[in-house]
């Protein structure tokens, strides 16, 4: 045999290719992880729509006392139905704001309907005719009953 050709071992690759391959593999795993996490529906939070209630018996007693003051003034003829409805609305909204943290004192009726406090929206809806109609038309007793219901039995 003529001269044996020398055997050459495999050539070594540059370290650059190793790091490039690892970086591409990490990028692919990261992209798949991001795609899985970002396309999942959000976890439902059970308590997100339910406000935290802090209506202690003392708080109820204070607001029921305010409602009774309005009832007495109305019965004595010192205030009219319109003023009574306006005051009852202010009292009920203040109670809800203190009890739940929902900023009811600044909300319209439509905004109250979207809140998780449906009894309040119903009561405020009962107050609206008294607040905005001609004097003498509104049913003040119904407004008083709605206010007592919200403060006394709600929450």
Using only C-alpha atoms, the radius of gyration works out to 35 Å
| Computed structural class | mainly alpha
Compute the number of strand runs: 0
The helix count comes to: 6
Instruction: Estimate percent helicity.
Output: 55-70%
The coarse overall form would be rod-shaped
Task: Provide an overview of this structure.
By secondary structure, this protein is an all-alpha fold. Helix content is 63%, strand content 0%. The protein contains six helices and no strands. The protein has helices spanning 15-38, 57-76, 81-100, 109-113, 118-132, 140-153. Helix 3 (81-100) packs parallel to helix 6. It is rod-shaped and about 130 Å long. Residues 46-51 have low confidence and may be disordered.
What keywords describe this structure?
155 residues, mainly alpha, rod-shaped
How is the topology of this model organized?
Layout: H1 15-38, H2 57-76, H3 81-100, H4 109-113, H5 118-132, H6 140-153
Helix pairs in contact: 2-3, 2-6, 3-5, 3-6, 5-6
Short structural description:
The chain is mainly alpha-helical.
